[in-house]
């Protein structure tokens, strides 16, 4: 599927977004400088940026960023690969949904923080623990989104598929999956943030190398500027990832009413 | 070939159930063009849904070649009344038409050829790479027709398939159906509101009463097998049949006061 | 009718099977970290049914529900607004995505700074976490409103609050519901996170404290409780959804 | 549950050892042991793994992913009490005898409700973790000063959040350890007690530990680590500047803060007497239920 | 009253833009019944969308009472071709019809009365408490019509509003429209594929050429103002006009080969 005419953000759109960000940053600066926000815990942006700049020049930050990014990506891909087929199944086969529902609902609220010691014991302190935690958290969110989406297939469309003898697999692929895509893409954006957050959390607590480990070190080492610098890098990473996902979404969902452009 | 025996259909309502189809029986033979007409809300779509196995009749059975129908048989193709929703917004017109062909064991070239032919037959050759939502209502309806024709079913079930096309295109499509029937030995179950169309196309026309519906009458259309838009419609027998069917429907719409429904 | 009963039965079968597997797999476990389910259940009964345990549950549920409700309401309102005002959406989306990517644990100090150590901080954290899935789903659901419906609303002058309540919200409701389904377990998880700091009470506090002192069985009993609560909350939401969005399920069943 | 992962050797025949630690000044000798070649001399190739909390460190040690880990004395008791198979290997850090040089202080706001040590009897004190070393040592220290500790409340929060919490009045007093004590002093807070030193001078507060299984299978490796730590701790004690430098370079601690911070002591050997005393109080204050089996731990 | 001046409409495509409407100009007077006919895909729906302000014409302007239309004016009501999708699945039929009335400052009793009347007029009095998805296609379409009528607009725009109803009901609804027009001084812009219907109902019939469309011809219908299903259709002038319009459309559908579109 190639994109047709999708509603891409126009140049003024970008300017507007950038402008808003600048306004917010200036606001923070003013609030901390004037003491409305306590500056010693919440350093002014200029100070954070000053701490960040030398880091940007060095390789370590980019290495850590790469580690985190890699963890995020693998976890999200794993979670998607597991959740989408299962979600389509659960969304289309009512008895499978009924059978697994209590278990799914039971497992979903299990906090990853509580799992950390168990995961470390089972998987160690390496990347695999980080991946497990992030995949675990993202998986449920994607599962819910896919299940709901697959259940939202237009009735007439589904009947057309049945009438033309599409097999179950074909119906999943060509009818249930595209119908679920709008839900799924939203789910991916929710789960992407979750995956990133869990990767960073695992880095903080278990000490897997990455941005989180730096946040933890700088917090322990009495450098709030640097700690915030790394938090900001994490936030920026989240924003970048989302921008990329949103662009991908516009291509994949170019047929959806949200992206059809002017009528 | 297709036997509908005493089917009834009830829907659950807040207070109990409503009986929408009361008792409908008919058979459709090989190569037969069987049309159902009746007032709006009579239960025509409901009968078609039972026929295809999409809905389960509350009572009675539907058999195809002697076998009870429980789900849509692969030999059937359907053009839905709600044609716009039956198309997949995420596929181009070509892909929509081609999709059902994938299970027929055709080569890619054969599939392409069938799609091309069907699109040309409904006058949409140039729209193949568009998406359904970029088409006009009538064009969408023709895509649904093309999909059904390309599938080359043994039984073609159509629910008001020409509701949104202009008179000339409609006439062309009517003749297309007759031609396809002759070429591929198709049986057709057809629903229309256009009495002229029903008489012109059909071998038999079943008139459904208001809901809870029964078959009011099945009118055999004894017109020459070879139909022709001008010649056939000028036959006195055509006018007679047309008037007969029309008066039956009118009687039904008017017997019960409009507000009572 | 029939199917609903069967559904519930199947659910019970699934649950029983899972419990049985868990029970059998851990019954002879000597691992401190994976204690037998029987022990976990005993501990759970001891703690959570005691007066202290009930107080923990009450305090957590209070925070959780407040946070969840605030998060859901804010998520719907902001999402629906952004979905209809593209300019606003574009202006705010980078800032939103930025905040969304920051872990709740990293936001704790900020929340403490704003609200101190009390209940407000916890509710804030929970709400802040729950808002995202609801917001994004409301936003996307609003954006892909059926064009014909959109046209209908504008033609008949259905605008303002009336349009939001009668057209936009019901149309986006299935998506919003799926967002809320994600938010519910998230609120439980965030309850735990929020009780890691400055708390003496709550399910999360018990879990974290048990973890710090290596009382892993106690920790498991807390996790078990969270699972049960998650199930209960989702089930309650399902009931509410059926009442609020009756056309959804009925439209399907009718055929 | 026997066996465990095989130890690997480097090309020149040294045993590779992964040591888990949390990011504090306590880790300085460990880093010095690596950088000064002390471990190499004892046939060990040590890599240091930093994790934020014991929640991840202890299981990693039990799993023998880190052959050696670190935990403070109370955590050690708690882990042992819950049946985790751990064995203490060497002292990590201790309190010394000079209250002025204690790494640990309880501080209050100069104009706050708590002015004297006696006032702490009914204070709400921030600690990093409940039922742990902060709580136990503060109570010990206060009892030695004759303060009734039954009315004290403790509130858990990260060290880095404590200054603001105190400033806002969320808590009445905070327990800080270096290097955060420096930041607290800079914020103008008044130290009231040096709870580590006052609780028990010359105590050992944290131990390197390993899993019982590992200790049984590799007694010579454990011995080598212990010998090396003797040397490393001595080196760190003799070269406080290098100790400071080690945490600045390895843990990226803020050099300004570290330069004024007190260092803990890095005692030799494996101090059992101090553990015994802490065990008594840990039971008394409810951090553990019954006295630990020190023979099993040591 | 309604002036459409040289409007054109282009849609973006992968390779550039397609011009769907090329140049359309007409005016609709007070109380006029203005019908647009044309082949399927000609651009009728597109013109209607520009007319109501739902779409912005690429070129040209639409004015209502001298004011340029930028969004749907409150005086307009529209029955969409895609009627099924224009109904709100979450509301009952009554609620669907009543919703637009809420802005008119009517009392609850007045609203109720209008809804009742409109539902009775389209023969759906008994269906008020059903949901749209419980209705047949034709009934859904009549709900959309009832909603428009209950709104009592100054201009009523209808896109193939009778496509899914039976012949008798259709005739009844046609007469209903004429009656409503006479009673409430309505202007109507109407799209249909049924040439008989167009001639029977209209004051003028505009024939649209194939897309990119222009107005091929505007045919004034000089039939007596008082129309009547039997009498009017028996007039020779009716037959002449009907034949004329039909031949124009046929010419357009056939001039360009079907596959070229
Ligand atoms: N899901 C449902 N629940 C309740 N009643 C229904 C449902 N579906 C259809 N009906 C009722 O069944 C009757 C027949 O509907 P059906 O769609 O079969 O009519 P139809 O003959 O196809 O009409 P039309 O020509 O208008 O399409 C209608 O009165 C309708 O209200
Ligand atoms: N969003 C769109 N993008 C691209 N092309 C479009 C779009 N909408 C409509 N078109 C094209 O515009 C042309 C006219 O469409 P329109 O719906 O106005 O026709 P119509 O006269 O109403 O036909 P019908 O009688 O079949 O409803 C068609 O060829 C269609 O493909
Ligand atoms: Mg029907
Ligand atoms: Mg149209």
Automatic annotation (TrEMBL), chain A:
It comes from the Bacteria. InterPro entries: MetI-like (IPR000515), MetI-like_sf (IPR035906). Residues 65-245 form the ABC transmembrane type-1 domain. Pfam families: BPD_transp_1 (PF00528). It is a multi-pass membrane protein. It is found in: Cell membrane. Keywords: Cell membrane, Membrane, Transmembrane, Transmembrane helix, Transport. GO terms for biological process: transmembrane transport. The keyword Transmembrane helix applies. GO terms for cellular component: plasma membrane. Gene3D superfamilies: MetI-like. The keyword Cell membrane applies. The chain crosses the membrane at residues 72-94, 106-124, 131-151, 195-215, 227-247. Belongs to the binding-protein-dependent transport system permease family. PANTHER family: ABC TRANSPORTER PERMEASE PROTEIN MJ0413-RELATED, ALKANE SULFONATE ABC TRANSPORTER-RELATED, MEMBRANE SUBUNIT. This is ABC-type nitrate/sulfonate/bicarbonate transport system, permease component.
Automatic annotation (TrEMBL), chains B, E:
SMART domains: AAA. It holds the Pfam family ABC_tran. SUPFAM superfamilies: P-loop containing nucleoside triphosphate hydrolases (SSF52540). Keywords: ATP-binding, Nucleotide-binding, Transport. It comes from the Bacteria. InterPro entries: AAA+_ATPase, ABC_transporter-like_ATP-bd, ABC_transporter-like_CS, ABC_transporter_ATP-bind, P-loop_NTPase. GO terms for molecular function: ATP binding; ATP hydrolysis activity. Transmembrane segments: none annotated. Residues 2-235 form the ABC transporter domain. The keyword Lyase does not apply. This is NitT/TauT family transport system ATP-binding protein.
TrEMBL record, chain C:
It is a multi-pass membrane protein. One of its GO terms (biological process) is transmembrane transport. It holds the Pfam family BPD_transp_1. The keyword Kinase does not apply. Residues 57-241 form the ABC transmembrane type-1 domain. The chain crosses the membrane at residues 5-25, 64-86, 98-117, 123-140, 219-240. It is found in: Cell membrane. GO terms for cellular component: plasma membrane. It comes from the Bacteria. The keyword Transport applies. Keywords: Cell membrane, Membrane, Transmembrane, Transmembrane helix, Transport. Belongs to the binding-protein-dependent transport system permease family. PANTHER family: ABC TRANSPORTER PERMEASE PROTEIN MJ0413-RELATED, ALKANE SULFONATE ABC TRANSPORTER-RELATED, MEMBRANE SUBUNIT. This is ABC-type nitrate/sulfonate/bicarbonate transport system, permease component. The lineage of its organism: Bacteria, Bacillati, Actinomycetota, Actinomycetes, Pseudonocardiales.
């Amino acid at each position: 599927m190639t994109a047709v005419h999708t509603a891409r953000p126009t140049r003024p759109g970008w300017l507007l977004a950038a402008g808003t960000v600048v306004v917010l940053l200036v606001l923070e600066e003013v609030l901390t400088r004037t003491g409305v926000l306590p500056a010693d815990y919440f350093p002014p942006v200029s100070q954070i940026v000053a701490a960040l700049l030398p880091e940007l020049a060095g390789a370590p930050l980019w290495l850590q960023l790469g580690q985190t990014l890699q963890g995020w990506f693998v976890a999200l891909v794993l979670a998607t690969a597991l959740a989408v087929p299962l979600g389509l199944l659960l969304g289309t086969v009512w008895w499978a949904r009924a059978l697994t529902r209590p278990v799914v609902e039971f497992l979903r609220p299990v906090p990853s923080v509580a799992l950390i010691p168990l995961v470390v014991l089972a998987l160690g302190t390496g990347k695999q623990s980080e991946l497990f935690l992030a995949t675990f958290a993202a998986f449920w969110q994607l599962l819910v989104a896919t299940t709901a989406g697959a259940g939202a297939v237009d009735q007439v469309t589904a009947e057309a598929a049945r009438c033309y003898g599409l097999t179950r697999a074909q119906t999943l692929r060509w009818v249930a999956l595209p119908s679920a895509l709008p839900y799924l893409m939203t789910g991916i954006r929710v789960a992407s943030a979750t995956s990133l957050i869990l990767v960073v959390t695992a880095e903080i607590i278990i000490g897997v190398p990455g941005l989180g480990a730096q946040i933890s070190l700088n917090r322990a080492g009495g450098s709030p500027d640097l700690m915030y610098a790394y938090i900001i890098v994490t936030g920026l990473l989240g924003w970048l990832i989302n921008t990329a996902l949103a662009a991908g979404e516009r291509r994949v969902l170019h047929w959806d009413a949200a992206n059809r452009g002017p009528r | 070939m297709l036997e509908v025996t005493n089917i009834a259909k009830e829907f659950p309502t807040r207070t109990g159930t409503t009986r929408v189809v009361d008792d409908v029986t008919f058979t459709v033979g090989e190569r037969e063009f069987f049309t159902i007409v009746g007032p709006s809300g009579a239960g025509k779509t409901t009968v078609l849904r039972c026929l295809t196995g999409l809905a389960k009749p509350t009572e009675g059975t539907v058999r195809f070649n002697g076998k009870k129908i429980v789900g849509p048989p692969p030999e059937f193709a359907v053009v839905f009344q709600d044609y716009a929703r039956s198309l997949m917004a995420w596929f181009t017109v070509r892909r929509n038409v081609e999709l059902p062909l994938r299970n027929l064991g055709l080569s890619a070239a054969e599939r392409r050829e069938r799609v091309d032919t069907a699109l040309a037959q409904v006058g949409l050759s140039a729209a193949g790479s568009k998406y359904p939502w970029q088409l006009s209502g009538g064009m969408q309806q023709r895509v649904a027709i093309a999909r059904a024709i390309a599938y080359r079913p043994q039984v073609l079930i159509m629910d008001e398939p020409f509701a949104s096309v202009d008179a000339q295109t409609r006439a062309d499509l009517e003749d297309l159906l007759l031609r396809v029937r002759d070429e591929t030995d198709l049986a057709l179950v057809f629903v229309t509101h256009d009495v002229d169309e029903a008489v012109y196309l059909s071998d038999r026309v079943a008139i459904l009463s208001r809901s809870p519906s029964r078959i009011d009458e099945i009118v055999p259309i004894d017109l020459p097998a070879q139909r022709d838009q001008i010649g056939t419609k000028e036959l006195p027998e055509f006018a007679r049949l047309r008037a007969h069917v029309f008066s039956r429907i009118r009687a039904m719409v008017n017997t019960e006061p409009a507000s009572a429904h | 009718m029939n199917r609903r009963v069967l559904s519930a039965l199947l659910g019970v079968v699934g649950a029983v099977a899972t419990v049985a597997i868990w029970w059998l797999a851990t019954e002879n476990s000597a691992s401190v970290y994976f204690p037998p389910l029987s022990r976990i259940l005993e501990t759970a009964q001891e703690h959570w049914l005691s007066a202290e345990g009930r107080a923990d549950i009450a305090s957590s549920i209070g925070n959780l529900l407040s946070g969840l409700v605030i998060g859901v309401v804010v998520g719907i309102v902001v999402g629906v607004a952004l979905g209809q005002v593209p300019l606003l959406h574009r202006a705010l989306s980078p800032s939103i995505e930025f905040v969304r990517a920051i872990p709740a644990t990293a936001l704790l100090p900020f929340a403490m700074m704003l609200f101190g150590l009390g209940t407000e901080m916890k509710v804030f954290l929970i709400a802040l976490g729950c808002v995202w899935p609801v917001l994004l789903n409301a936003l996307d659901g609003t954006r892909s409103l059926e064009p014909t419906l959109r046209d209908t609303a504008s033609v008949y002058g259905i605008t303002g609050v009336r349009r939001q309540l009668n057209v936009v919200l019901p149309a986006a409701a299935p998506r919003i519901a799926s967002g809320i389904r994600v938010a519910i377990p998230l609120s439980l998880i965030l309850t735990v996170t929020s009780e890691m700091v400055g708390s003496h009470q709550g399910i999360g506090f018990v879990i974290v404290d048990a973890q710090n002192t290596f009382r892993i069985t106690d920790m498991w009993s807390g996790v078990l409780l969270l699972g049960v609560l998650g199930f209960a909350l989702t089930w309650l939401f399902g009931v509410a959804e059926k009442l609020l969005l009756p056309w959804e399920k009925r439209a399907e069943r009718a055929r | 549950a026997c066996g465990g992962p095989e130890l690997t050797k480097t090309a020149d025949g040294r045993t590779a050892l992964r040591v888990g630690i949390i990011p504090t000044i306590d880790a300085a000798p460990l880093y010095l042991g690596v950088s000064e070649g002390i471990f190499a001399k004892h046939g060990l190739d040590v890599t240091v793994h930093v994790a934020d909390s014991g929640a991840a460190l202890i299981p990693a040690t039990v799993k023998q992913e880190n052959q050696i880990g670190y935990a403070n004395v109370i955590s050690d008791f708690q882990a042992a009490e819950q049946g985790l198979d751990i064995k203490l290997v060497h002292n990590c850090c201790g309190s010394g005898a000079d209250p002025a040089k204690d790494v640990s202080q309880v501080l209050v706001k100069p104009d706050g409700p708590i002015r004297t040590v006696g006032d702490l009897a009914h204070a709400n004190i921030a600690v990093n973790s409940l039922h742990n070393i902060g709580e136990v040592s503060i109570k010990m220290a206060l009892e030695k000063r004759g303060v009734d500790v039954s009315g004290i409340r403790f509130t858990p929060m990260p060290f880095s959040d404590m200054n603001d919490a105190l400033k806002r009045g969320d808590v009445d007093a905070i327990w800080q350890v270096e290097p955060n004590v420096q930041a607290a002093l800079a914020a103008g807070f008044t130290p009231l007690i040096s709870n580590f030193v006052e609780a028990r001078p010359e105590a050992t507060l944290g131990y390197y530990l390993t899993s019982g299984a590992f200790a049984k299978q590799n007694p010579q490796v454990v011995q080598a680590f212990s010998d090396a730590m003797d040397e490393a701790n001595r080196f760190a004690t003799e070269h406080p500047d290098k100790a400071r430098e080690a945490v600045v370079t390895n843990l990226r601690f803020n050099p300004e803060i570290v330069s004024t911070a007190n260092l803990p002591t890095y005692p030799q050997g494996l101090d059992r007497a101090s553990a015994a005393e802490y065990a008594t109080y840990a039971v008394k204050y409810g951090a553990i239920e019954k006295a630990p089996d020190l023979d099993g731990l040591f």
